[in-house]
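User: Predict the complex with aspartic acid.
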Amino acid sequence: MGKWFEIALWKRILAALVLGVIVGMIWGPGTESIAWVGTLFIRLIRMVVVPLVFVTLISGVVSMGDPSKLGSLGVRTLAIYMGTTLAAITIGLILAAILQPGVGVDFSSAIPGEVQEAMPLTDRLLSIVPSNPIAALAEGNILAIIFFALLVGVSLLTLGEKGRPVADLMDSSSEMMLRITHWVMEVAPFGAFSLIAVATGTQGVEALSSLFTLAVAVVIGCVAHLIIVHGVLIMHFTLKLSPYMFFSGARDAMLVAFSTSSSLAALPVSMSVAEEKLGIKPVVASTVLPLGATINMDGTALYVGIVSVFAAQAFDIPLSLTDYLLIAGSTTLVSVGTAAVPGASIFLMSAVMDAIGMAPEQIGLVIGFIFAIDRPLDMLRTSVNIAGDLSVSTAVANWEGEFDREIFDR
Ligand code: ASP
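Assistant: Here is the predicted structure with aspartic acid placed in the model:
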């Protein structure tokens, strides 16, 4: 038993993933019988998200000491998140234009998927202000929770001594939630094993041949984005940190993102590695990461860009430069407030393909067609999403002087 805990968590999760793929291939649909282990893990980890975000954000803001710092933190964070998302879509669009994954694809075998309506932008922005904070907590509406927690944190700061008891309570509550997160993480190897075994065992591979180029484009795009955009961000725009150290610090969170296909489920782990391995101080980790989980989805944006071009190519719809800009702009906007759950990009995609003038029937066909490979690509893009959140947080922490180099180098 002691030996088990001596092995680094990421090694245990990685081994579980490899074993899960093998078991999935051998056992096939029978793996459904162990699906409950994965569900249990996801439930445990999602149980932590809302209280963790709420209390750590409040105690983070209080630890900052000066509410006016929030402004520069917020502006920088939003600007870099938007910048990296745009970079991701650009990489996706370029790859799709070069590799042409959609040329010659025949949709006749596709069973149309469900086209999802996007909420209008004004409604999405308005929903950031909760009409009832308790309901926002109960529904897990992260942006609304962030908004309310920021107000609570700032008000405690302005209250000074009077605010102390609540501030102390929040501080010890965040320690408590991080402790629970650690415990839950011990279930990760079993959860990852079950999730990947079921995904491998129940996934058909028939459609794979015509989707091969698409999958290759996504894989190349994700790797390129990690190396070019985030590698460079870490190496040049911050204190010349080592990308190798960054990715080793981030790997627990990336692996959980990979196994669960949900940035939201990976959020507690990314918050804990941010503080304990990457040296990001609580004020940045507790504000920038939850925001990133909901609004910053680099891997997803890259994917949506590639799929939109793929669809246009398959239906012989010529794309002008304006269309490419439209894809980039609408993906960035719609991704704000898109739930960070498995398959969220299906929803994003509907909105983006609609923006370039595709008919709902065509969109339905594309969604149905790519569904076969959505899960493995979702795993990949979700870990890219989480890596993006962590690298932007590292950069922001550095700029704001909220970075502990000793922890990072360790
Ligand atoms: N599963 C992704 C996430 O949670 C979103 C998506 O690409 O579907 O970040």
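The mean pLDDT is 88.
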